[in-house]
């Protein structure tokens, strides 16, 4: 499941909703990103962004045995301390959940169609993020 939204999210509520009534899930891995230090503004192209995130989520399901997954990414103006992104992967065993979560986060940091601005400066992926994403090719 993919959501791009301006509203905040509750990490525990999202995990509970994803795993409720599921007895086939033995591992849940989460990554929660929080805005640090400076006000951010994130932009996206509605429709296109969700389509592209859906493709990468489908690729994660093809690579690893996942029972469920969730990506929530916020857009708009975000202040320091606010939630910005949530990735949840659920599988029978932890290895698949960990790898899929890392894969999804590497994609979000390097290739996801979001544009991030700190003040007047547009932020690009760091070389270290690009290097981390290379391992999935």
Can you put this structure into words, describing what you see?
A hairpin with a 2-residue loop joins strand 7 (114-118) and strand 8 (121-123). 25% of the residues are buried. The protein has one domain (2-116): Molybdopterin biosynthesis MoaE subunit (Aldehyde Oxidoreductase, domain 3, Alpha-Beta Complex), CATH 3.90.1170. The protein starts with a strand and ends with a helix. With 137 residues, it is an alpha+beta fold. It has helices spanning 11-19, 48-63, 94-110, 127-134, and strands at residues 2-5, 27-34, 40-44, 68-74, 76-78, 83-91, 114-118, 121-123. Helix 2 packs antiparallel against helix 3 and helix 3 (94-110) packs across helix 4 (127-134). Strands 1-4-6-2 form a four-stranded mixed sheet, sandwiched between helices. A four-stranded antiparallel sheet has the order 5-3-7-8, with no helix packed on it. The chain contains four helices and eight strands; from the N terminus they run βαββαβββαββα.
Radius of gyration: 15 Å
Counted beta strands? 8
Oligomer: single chain
Poorly predicted runs are: none
**Succession of helices and strands:** EHEEHEEEHEEH
Task: Report how far apart the termini are.
Answer: 23 Å
Describe the sheet with the most strands.
Answer: 4 strands, mixed
How many structural domains does the protein architecture include? 1
Principal-axis shape equals globular
- For CATH, the homologous superfamily is named as Molybdopterin biosynthesis MoaE subunit
**What is the overall pLDDT average?**
94
Give the proportion of residues in helices: 25-40%
CATH architecture: Alpha-Beta Complex
Strand order of the largest sheet: 1-4-6-2
Strand content: 25-35%
* SS element count, helices: 4
Under CATH, the topology is which?
Aldehyde Oxidoreductase, domain 3
Helix/strand structural class: alpha+beta
